[in-house]
Amino acid sequence: MHIKFVEIANFRKLLSIRVDLAEATTLFVGANNSGKTSAMLALRRFLAPRRCPFEMNDFTLCHWSTVIDIGKSWAAARDQEEVVDLVIEPWLSILPTLDLWLHVESGEMHHVRDLIPTLDWEGGSLGVRLRYEPKDLELLYKDFMGALGDAEEMREAAIAAAAVDHPDADPPPAPPKLTIWPENLVDFLSKRLSTYFTVQAYPLDPAKLVEPDKSQARPQLLPPTSLPIGVDVLAGLIRVHDIPAQRGFGEEQSSQEDEDTQSAAAGSRLSDQLKSYYAKHLDPTKGPDPKDLGALQAIEAAQDAFDKRLAESFEAAFTEVEGMGYPGVTDPRPRVSTRLKAIDGLNHSAAITFEVDVIGEDGKMTPILRLPEANNGLGYQNLISMIFRLMSFRDAWMRVGKASKTIAADHTEPLHLVLIEEPEAHLHAQVQQVFINKAYAVLRAHEDLGDNPKLRTQLVVSTHSSHVAHETSFSCLRYFRRLPAGMAAKVPVSTVINMSEVFGANGETERFVTRYLRAQHADLFFADAAILVEGPAERMLVPNFIRARYDELNQCYITLLEIGGSHAHRLRPLIEHLGLLTLVITDMDTLTGTGGTSVQPAKGAGQKTNNATLKTWLPGTDEVDALIDADDDAKTRRSDGDPLFAVRVAYQVPLEVTPPGAGGPDTAFPYTFEDALAFENIRFFAELDGTGLVRKFREAIEAGGGVAAIGNLMYEALKNGKKAEFALDVLEADGFDDLVVPRYIAAGLEWLLAQLKKKQVEILSEVELSQPNVPQPERVV
């Protein structure tokens, strides 16, 4: 048995999404504010509502007006002395829901007997809807009307007071501004939501399961007369533990809460976690067995010795008190005694220390210095804390040690769901990779677990770290993408993309992309846009062009990848699946003809391009003449259903150049980035000192003979030139900040900036987008 996927609706910015869960580890990735945290919070809210209660802000913002309208209709009916029809129907389209879909084998049906939809169901997919809904509409109506009436009386009193203070005014002045709770039903529920709402479960029909449409889930419609099957139907089926993002390292906890509550809290020091672990699994006073006799006898002996010493110490003090006439003959006499607990030995700030090796006089390493826990680095604290907490989660689920006597041990939940937010906090790159590789193994390190399919652990991790993402298979990644208001709803919402579907059956492409991204440590999954460049010179110089000339673009989160013209198209399935705004900066790679040899570009010579990106992606032709004549539209590809996604290619274009000493301009046809940069800044390179390509470019310009001759010499120099060395020489030059950006790159960067400005707005204009008509059962947007 395992969780196949969840469908979350009407929860914060998750209007209607499906999140597939891998059988072992699932990774949530995406840019900031894309919905990852909302998804993790929804899992906590629905699966552990007692220790993670709902808030009014959990209702999707575009549904607040519906809640307000319900309250207004109640107030209007009261004012007109009409009978209010308190039914659930007006609420159905706005209530937060989580549809949990399990895969259940035929031999596991006894675990889900309360969820089985029909008598003829024999295993496979099984769904249950968890819906956050009103407990008692009559009570909610009564209390809201009472609070609303009290508020109205206060407002009337304020108006009367203003009239008394100004009896001669006509008309009477308005009272000073006064906000009185509740202003509306949303305001009322913001303070008392948990009093009137609860999570109820409803069975779902696997036969009515519908696939998402354009990444928007389509949960099945339940009749208004559907009856809930209970509140705790998942108790005994799923054990949920989580490690939140804010772990508060270096801060002592004022009290030790129960294990499940502690796991959901902001975090605690390792010493606090050890105390909790000891209390649940090791404390000899809880359900002692023969192995605990020695510890118990030692504690009692210490207690007796301490009591004897205390009695001797306080004897003089008690004798002095007796001199005051108390206690008398019949009065009880005071005595001092102790009650020692083994856990008290961990109840201090130095319960955990770290030993530091010191070289002694004999030259040997001696661990004699100890530092308190708070003096250790945050990275180590984080790593040790998370690993220890995972061990604690595992042992609590498996009822290890004393937990078997304090928790019902006759039934272990078949599913263990562990949620971890942003494990990369304070960890350097290598440790991040080690943690994500080892975390699942820690959760399965028990003699009854291992490969046991009857007890399943599913780990869900949200992250902003490319190092964590690259250590996880594409099939386990779930990409969260933020959509602005007007695209799928009236408010900004999110959608989720299952990365296992990106490459389809093309395993070779998936292997290349996976290996490439791991080698590059790219941030594609967290960026606002991507720039793919041809070679090392562009990789070094383009970011500097952006910093020097495009301040607004420099403030955006853009990832730059050196991929090469022959491979950029291999990222096409990934980029299009992510809907990631992308600029591809590449070279013409001209040939004398089909299958010919490399040649300097020229128009009207029947040349072909050898660049796979230009041939198969954009503009989609191998004719050099067509590439030279291509306009902006031909170099750009957009999505009909996604106005925020576009890809543009930028490659060399003909230039009008006037070399030093020439009588007038002539047309140059650059072959690659380096000679395009030189032609755009020909006087700069004519005076630039350097070696390698820089020297050969200077000599080509000094040789003169016209633009074509200079171009030929540069082309020959580029065949064996070291481009990375060229880029470094240019970066070190005094006049670098005054360089003219090659116009094909400048046009591409200006296009990218314009697209990012449109992407970052909260609301799309009606001119840019007509709202799509996506069917969404049980919701009104």
Oligomer category: single chain
Average pLDDT value? 84
The Rg value, from CA coordinates, equals: 35 Å
Strand content: 15-25%
Distance between the termini: 35 Å
The overall strand count is 22
What percentage of residues falls in helices of 4 or more residues? 25-40%
DSSP summary: helix tally: 23
Strand order of the largest sheet: 7-10-11-3-12-13
- State the low-pLDDT regions, or none: 249-259, 261-267, 766-781
Shape type:
globular
Structural class: alpha/beta
- Outline the biggest β-sheet: 6 strands, mixed
Region (Disordered): 248-268
InterPro entries: AAA_GajA/Old/RecF-like, Bact_Antivir_Def_Nuclease, P-loop_NTPase, TOPRIM_OLD
Domain Endonuclease GajA/Old nuclease/RecF-like AAA: 1-53, 252-469
Domain OLD protein-like TOPRIM: 525-589
Question: Could you describe the 3D structure shown?
Answer:
There is one protein chain. This protein has 781 residues and is an alpha/beta fold. Among the domains are: 2-237, no CATH class; 298-340, no CATH class; 522-652 and 742-763; 653-738, no CATH class. Helices cover 36% and strands 17% of the residues. The strands form six sheets. It has a six-stranded mixed sheet, with helices on both faces. Strands 2-1-4-5-6 form a five-stranded antiparallel sheet. Strand 8 (353-359) and strand 9 form a beta hairpin. Helix 6 (270-282) runs parallel beside helix 8, helix 8 (378-397) runs parallel beside helix 10 (429-443) and helix 20 (692-703) packs antiparallel against helix 21. The radius of gyration is 35 Å and the shape is globular.
